[in-house]
Amino acid sequence: MTNRTIVQSMSVLVVMCLTAPQPRAQADMTVSNSTLTVSGSGVVNLCGRTMQFTPTAQLSETGGGRITGGRLTTTRPLVNPTLLNVAGFGLTISSWANLGQTTVIRGHTGQLVNGNPGILRYFQVTPTNNSGLNADLVFRYHQAELNGIPESDLRLYYSTNGSTWTQRAGSLDVVANTFKVSGLSSFSYWTAASKGTDIQHFVDVPPSSPYFSFVEKIFAVSITAGCASSLFCPAATVTRAQMAIFLLKAKHGSSYTPPAATGIFSDVPPGYWARAWIEQLANEGITSGCGPGLYCPENVVTRAQMAVFLLKTKYGSAYSPAPYNPPVFLDVPVGHWARAFVEQLAAQGITAGCGPGIYCPDNPVTREQMAVFLTKAFGY
After folding, report:
1. Are 121 and 92 in contact (CB under 8 A)?
2. Which residues 6+ apart lie within 8 Å of 292 measured at CB?
3. N or C, which end of the chain is more exposed by having fewer CB within 10 Å?
4. Residues 6+ apart with CB under 8 A from 235
């Protein structure tokens, strides 16, 4: 593979503009079967042009070097990618699913996100297979692209049309200049923008609540509308019937409707409000009920049960994590039936427990805790 290096003069592909301190592109261009390196303090300004990377071409931006202005684009097959920085554009993708031919575009204009300014970078990801993915991504940005936004105010947003944006929970690393998000069912447009002003939808979950952002996120993606008008009932416990709906909407999307029930559980009769959801949870192998022919729909969900339900929803019914040695939580010892799932929940950063060194496995899950579990597991 040829390595084409661009430093500050960058005379191979660009010419100097008298009106600008950076080299600027004269026309659309293609990088074929090579690595294009922008290093040191080098900056390539595409001036609104498009730079196309063929399926074997790569971009390398090192030591502060970067491309700005215009767009970078590539189309290539992504087969079960694992931590793949596609074409070196700064968007790293992992997916258990085969995405097929996938187009990735990196643009360098700030998006107006719900009235708030965005950074000078966005990505558009369009796979052939773009549903039910359970994928992860890492969104990388350059310090020079912050567009005057304090890094502590940055939030990650996605859009299905490039104009209407929804915030997604992401792990921000201001040292690495990255957002990490997991559990994506599909790809779309992505950018980072100022968090703006917090909007409160439930009077019983104020912005001062540690659960505020989590509750607002599952509201934003229509997993919940609350428990009554303007109420979320954060301290109320979650029943097994309610859990079925929370989990399936998180997995399949808020518009998902399960198939008609056929009658699996004797304690979930015809006419029961969550019957179809409960049976679909069983059909997907996430639950086998609470006993022979029973589901116990009105029983509360414990934190131990939640660990199993959540991870099987995310990874599939066959998922079986290995336990850690020594045990992570003092109250989930060797031999505890849900130990491996509880510890995997902690390993993925979905929970830190209920106190120093403890998980409280038999405590009921509250609605505010459910919001945290769903947001962190599915990357809202």
Report:
1. no
2. none
3. N
4. 366, 367, 368
Q: Which one, of 356, 358, 326, 324, lies nearest residue 341 by Cα?
A: 324
Could you tell me how far CA 300 lies from the centroid of its own chain? 28
* Contact of 212 with 205, CB cutoff 8 Å: yes
Q: How far is CA 379 from CA 85, 136, 206, 216, in A?
A: 19, 8, 22, 13
Name the token pair of 131: 């549903």
The conformational region for residue 134 under phi > 0 = left, psi -120 to 50 = alpha, else beta, is left
Nearest Cα to 286, choosing from 266, 258, 254? Answer: 258
Contact 110, 81 (CB under 8 A): no
Measured in residues, the chain has a length of 380
Question: pLDDT tens digit string along 70-96?
Answer: 999 999 999 999 999 999 999 999 998
Decide: 372 and 364 in contact? Cβ < 8 Å.
no
Residue 331 one-letter amino acid:
D
Please tell me the predicted confidence (pLDDT) of residue 3. Answer: 43
In this predicted model, what pLDDT tens digit does every residue of 164-185 receive, in sequence order?
Answer: 888 887 788 999 999 998 878 8
Please name which of 276, 350, 264 lies closest in space to residue 308, comparing C-alpha atoms.
350
Yes or no: is domain 2-194 CATH 2.60.220? yes
> What is the rounded end-to-end Cα distance, in angstroms, of the chain?
39
Burial class of 175 by CB neighbour count within 10 A (0 to 12, 13 to 18, 19+):
exposed
Distance CA 345, CA 349 (A): 7
∠ CA 198-201-202 to the nearest 5 degrees? 120
Cis peptide leading into 297, omega within 30 of 0? no
Beta strand 116-127 with 112-113: parallel, antiparallel or unpaired?
antiparallel
| Residue 151 DSSP one-character state | G
Q: Using CA atoms, how far apart are residues 196 and 242, in angstroms rounded to an integer? A: 32
Map tokens 């293609």 to a residue.
30
Question: Which residue intervals of the chain bear CATH 2.60.220?
Answer: 2-194
Q: Which two tokens stand for residue 239?
A: 């029943």
Whole-angstrom Cα distance, residue 317 to residue 310?
A: 11
Nearest Cα neighbor of 123 from 66, 185, 74, 172 is 74
305-321 pLDDT tens trace: 999 999 999 999 999 99
Instruction: Give the span between the Cα atoms of 233 and 248, in whole angstroms.
Output: 21
